[in-house]
Amino acid sequence: MIYTKSGDQGITGLRDGQRVPKDDPRIEVNGEIDELNSLLGVVRASFQTVRPDGDGIRKIQLMLMDVMSWIAALPSSCSPGFHQDIDNLTKTLEQRMDKFSTKRSFQFVVPGDIPSKSIFHVARSKTRTVERRLWSLNRTYPVNPEILRFFNRLSDYLFVLSVTE
Length: 165
What we know:
Shape: globular
Helix content: 55-70%
Distance between the termini: 47 Å
Strand content: under 5%
């Protein structure tokens, strides 16, 4: 059964079975990550043939699901390879940024000139929201530093994709 009816009272469950209010900071962060994952699905769907980063966005989406699991459970209950996987993906994002980046320095851009690139800006700004929420969560529930680093690089990566020709 997909519904429990406990949500009707503003309560939801974490992965370890603990019941918490729906505005618990862990639930809030996971909701933001879920929105980001949905936006990245729109990004992938927007490029039916040639994707600017190959299958990279899908790999990022899968990592987002792992991060949500990490946040919704005790860190010790996550897969043993999680730390290495997120670190490797962060390094991959850095390598791709180095490959895609031009030699120009960072500058703000006004999104909207190219519809297919504008969606990267929406995903980038959502990533920044997730990153801020993670830092807020970190004050109460320590967040794995690799997760914080990953989201910082992810927003940079989405920016680079938004301005890459």
